[in-house]
Structures are given as C-alpha cells and as structure tokens.
C-alpha cells in the first residue's frame, strides 16, 4: 500500500541526519552553548503516528474511519477505483461480481470480543470477515462480534456485497455498542494525548508524500476515510487539540499555494481554542534528500541560481524563501494574538551549518520564532544480534551525549539569532531489519533507563519543547517508533512510555 511505503520512507529518512560523517565531528569542538534562560522549561510533545488501521491505535470510534474501500472479485484486494467513489469516499456502485471490503481498526487492549453495531443509509447488504462475524442484521443496520487476539497479522473487515446505485450504501458507522453515536474520538486515545504539551501531525497530514494540494479537495470530517491522499481533516486535528488541551503543530505542504496556506491558517484561527498555541512548519525535513519535497527544493534552488552553484546551499535558501512566504501568511492571520503562534524553521540536527544558511538568508529571522531539529539517539545495529544486548545498552550513554552535543551547537545558533531551539522529533533511533533483535532491544527493561537519561540530559542542557517520535506503532524493519506497540498495551510492557510518564510526573 502507498501508506506503508510512506511510513517506511519516513522512518528511513530519520536516519539521514547522521549521514554527513565529516560534519559530525564538528560537535566535538563546539563552543559552550549560552546559558539557559531563567524561565526555560522542558515540555514534552508527541508525534502522532499514521492513521492506518494496521498501526493498532484506535483514534476514531467509527471502526472504518482509519481504512479505505478495497475492490475484490474473489482473488485478492486492490484499492477501489476512484471513479466508483463519490466525493466523500462512499461506493457509488459495484460492478458485476465485485465486492468492496473495508478493514476495521482493532479495538485497544485488553483484547476481548467486542459487540459492534453498524448503521448506514441507503439500500444494500454488508457482510463481514476475518475476526468479525455478523450476528444479526436488518434494513440499514447489522451487528458484529469482533474478536481480536492481538496477533500482528490478524484482521477484521466488513464487506459491501450489494448496493443500490440509485440509493447506495453510505454513511456507514461501525462502533462498539458501549460508545454513543455522537462521539468521534476514542477516549483512550484522547487520554494518551492529553499527557503531552504539544501534538505534531506530520503523519496524519501525510506531509512526506509531497502531494499536490487544493483547498477545495481537502478531506473533511464528512469523508468516509481519514487516510486520504491529502491527509486527515484539519477540523479533526483541531478538535484533538481542543479536546486534549495540547498545542497543535501543523505542517504546511511544500506544494501549497498562498490560498491554501491562508485558508488553513484562518480555519485554525477560528476553530482552535484561543488559549492554545499553534506551531507551524513548512514541509518536513526539506533538508533530507530522501524526500520528494527536498529534491524539489534543490531543483528549484538550482534553477533559480541560488547558493552560488552549491546544490545543498541552493536547497536550503529555497527552503528559507518558502518558509518566509508561508510564515508571512500565518503572521497576518494571527496578528491579533501573535504570542500564540510559533513559526518554525527546521534543520538537520547533525549538520548545524544548515541552520545558519536558513536563518541568515534575507530576513528569514523576522518570520521565524524557533529553530527545530531532530535529536535522535542513534546507534548502528549492523552486525549485532540478540546476544549483543549488553554491548548495545552499554553504548547508549555515549550515543545520548553525542546527540546532545549537536543540541548544544544548534541551540547556540538559535540563541545567536534570538530564537528558541526545539525538537520536532526525538527519542531512540535503533533500526534493524532483524526483527528478533528489534524486539529484544525495544522490549528490554533497560530501554526505560535510556529514555530516563535522555530526558534528563535534555532537561539539563536544552530545556525546551521536545516532541517525541512517535505515539503508537508496531515493531518493524523500518523502525520501532512507538512509545507503545499497540493501544492499551500494559505499562509494564512499555519501557519507553514508562520512562516518559516518570519524567512527566516528576515535572508536575
């Protein structure tokens, strides 16, 4: 699936910031950073992982909101052709011999049989499969038993087997009977988010896809799916912030025009609780040549003859230009409450020189409030196996110190320009295709100690917003990013989350 490929690319991209080996040594000779401000404090944020149903994190109470319609003729599934969907993503008609499966998100643990009632408008018939079983049905409704076990490869789905083209099945809502129809978000998801000061919507917005965007075609809460090519509905992201009291961090698509950015800013301004502070960033890691937006910035920079012919400098200057244009719009919209707007410029953590290029281009500093990087705990697991856990964890203090030295350097650059230094992503970055090793490392109780040390060092040396990556995600060969592997996972099985909660408790 396209989303799976996107997640893989996003995870792999996080590693690139350590690819400039020659630059990495500069942190060893960096000057001491400026002293911390007397009012400086660490605030933990969280990046929400993608909304795909296989991430095992039920965000929406409607069990189909985190999936899409597929097409089947009895020999496998493919995505439903767009021409068979209406504007809100409901199936307009089925071809002869065709059915439309739709995966259900698995409810959070503890795993048990859940009674689900599906209600819909229109005329047709819906069946079910996998760990979902139809118990009863009538015109416009059916009930299911959904029996997840927690197995990584399990699935459950409804399947549209008949629909009336004159009055097609639509507005399908399948939810645990314990929850009312009027509620949109799962309370366990909201409870998780409300423990964080900032919530970044990178993966919800599918920013790394660098898709063409049009305000008229964006997803809305009325759309059948919130994993659309343009990402989730902005209204839903605003609602999450309002419901949890978190400050939202939005990313403007690199390809967005001024109208899109202005409409986005106006919607946030009008719908977000005015007491909330909004963070705004242009694209994601536009320094990172793995991503399409970064490649586009470099092409544009070179075509515009920026940077004196140096491709990376041209790329960063082009990014600075785009940042200024986007932030000018947000500055205008938030003119009535500028203290509730944080305009972010992002740079490569292990290549601090890029931050200087960005901030020193034209009047960028006038339109930026914070410099952000991704201070990951990085260690190359190549050549290690499950018998090497002692060696791996023995290397963690050095890895933490290494990334904190870069944090010192970037903070000094930000301070030189009178800007805040914050982290758009952070946490462990231990990636391996050896799944047995990945599981052993991520589940080892010593991982809690790694996070405790990491958070303590950040609090001592940087003391600003640290937005961890990420909320809930399975252990996989593209990385093990989640603080939890699945929603509802017992705390004693989540060393990273356990350390985060301990830190948060100590700060209250």
What does this structure look like?
- The chain is an alpha/beta fold and 508 residues long.
- It contains 14 helices and 19 strands.
- It has two domains: 2-28 and 45-59 and 186-507, Alpha-Beta Barrel (TIM Barrel); 70-176, no CATH class.
- Helix content is 31%, strand content 19%.
- It has an eight-stranded parallel beta sheet with strand order 17-15-14-13-12-11-1-19.
- α6 links the parallel β12 and β13 (278-282).
- α7 (292-303) packs across α8 (311-333) and α11 (396-416) runs parallel beside α13 (446-461).
- The longest helix is centred in the middle third of the chain and has 23 residues, at 311-333.
Task: Break the fold down into its secondary structure elements and pairings.
Blueprint: H1 2-13, H2 21-24, E1 43-47, E2 70-72, E3 77-79, E4 100-103, E5 114-121, E6 124-130, E7 132-138, E8 141-146, E9 156-163, E10 170-176, H3 187-193, E11 198-200, H4 202-205, H5 234-244, E12 247-252, H6 258-271, E13 278-282, H7 292-303, H8 311-333, E14 341-346, H9 353-359, E15 370-373, E16 376-378, H10 389-394, H11 396-416, E17 420-423, E18 427-429, H12 435-443, H13 446-461, E19 465-469, H14 495-507
Parallel strand pairs: 1-11, 1-19, 11-12, 12-13, 13-14, 14-15, 15-17, 16-18
Antiparallel strand pairs: 2-3, 4-9, 5-8, 5-10, 6-9, 7-8
Helix pairs in contact: 5-6, 6-8, 7-8, 8-9, 11-13, 13-14
Helix content: 25-40%
How many angstroms separate the termini? 42 Å
As for the CATH topology of the largest domain, it is TIM Barrel
Largest sheet entry: 8 strands, parallel
Strand arrangement across the biggest beta sheet: 17-15-14-13-12-11-1-19
Average pLDDT taken over every residue: 94
Q: Could you say what the CATH architecture of the largest domain is?
A: Alpha-Beta Barrel
Strand content: 15-25%
Structural shape: globular
């Amino acid at each position: 699936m396209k989303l799976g490929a996107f997640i893989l690319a996003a995870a792999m991209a996080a590693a690139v910031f350590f690819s400039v080996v020659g630059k990495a040594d500069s942190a060893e000779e960096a000057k001491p950073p400026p002293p911390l401000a007397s009012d400086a404090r660490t605030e933990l944020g969280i990046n929400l992982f993608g909304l795909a149903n296989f991430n095992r994190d039920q965000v929406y109470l409607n069990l189909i909101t985190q999936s899409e319609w597929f097409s089947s003729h009895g020999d496998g599934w493919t995505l439903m052709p767009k021409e068979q969907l209406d504007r809100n993503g409901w199936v307009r008609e089925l071809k002869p011999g065709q059915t439309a499966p739709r995966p259900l998100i698995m409810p959070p643990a503890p795993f048990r049989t859940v009674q689900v009632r599906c209600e819909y408008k229109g005329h047709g018939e819906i069946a079910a499969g996998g760990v979902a079983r139809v118990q009863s049905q009538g015109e416009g409704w059916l009930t299911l038993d959904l029996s997840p076990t927690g197995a990584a490869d399990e699935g459950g789905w409804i399947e549209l087997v008949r629909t009336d083209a004159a009055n097609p099945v639509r507005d399908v809502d399948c939810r645990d009977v314990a929850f009312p129809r009027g509620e949109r978000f799962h309370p366990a998801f909201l409870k998780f988010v409300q423990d964080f000061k900032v919530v970044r919507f990178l993966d919800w917005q599918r920013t790394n896809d660098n898709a063409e965007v049009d305000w008229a075609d964006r997803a809305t809460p009325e759309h059948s799916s919130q994993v659309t090519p343009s990402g989730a509905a902005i209204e839903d992201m605003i609602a999450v912030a309002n419901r949890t009291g978190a400050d939202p961090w939005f990313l403007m698509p690199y390809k967005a025009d001024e109208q899109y950015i202005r409409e986005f800013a106006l919607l946030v301004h009008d719908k977000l609780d005015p007491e909330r502070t909004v963070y705004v960033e242009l694209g994601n890691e536009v320094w990172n040549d793995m991503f399409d937006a970064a490649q586009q910035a470099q092409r544009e920079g070179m075509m515009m003859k920026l940077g004196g012919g140096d491709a990376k400098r041209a790329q960063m200057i082009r990014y600075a230009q785009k940042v200024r244009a986007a932030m000018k719009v947000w500055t205008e919209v938030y003119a009535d409450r500028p203290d509730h707007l944080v305009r972010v410029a992002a740079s490569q953590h292990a290549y601090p020189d890029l931050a200087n290029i960005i901030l020193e281009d034209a009047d960028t500093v006038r339109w930026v409030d914070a410099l952000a990087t991704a201070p990951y705990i990085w260690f190359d697991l190549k050549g290690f196996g499950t018998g090497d856990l002692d060696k791996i964890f023995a290397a963690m203090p050095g890895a933490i110190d290494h990334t904190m030295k870069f944090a010192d350097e970037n903070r000094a650059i930000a301070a030189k320009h009178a800007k805040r230094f914050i982290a758009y992503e952070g946490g462990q970055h231990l990636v391996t295709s050896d799944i047995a090793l990945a599981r052993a490392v991520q589940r080892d109780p010593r991982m809690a100690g790694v996070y405790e040390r990491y958070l303590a060092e950040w609090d001592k040396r940087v003391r600003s917003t640290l937005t961890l990556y990420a909320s809930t995600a399975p252990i996989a060969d593209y990385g093990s990013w989640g603080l939890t592997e699945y929603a509802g996972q017992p705390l004693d099985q989540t060393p990273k989350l356990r350390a985060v909660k301990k830190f948060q408790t100590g700060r209250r």
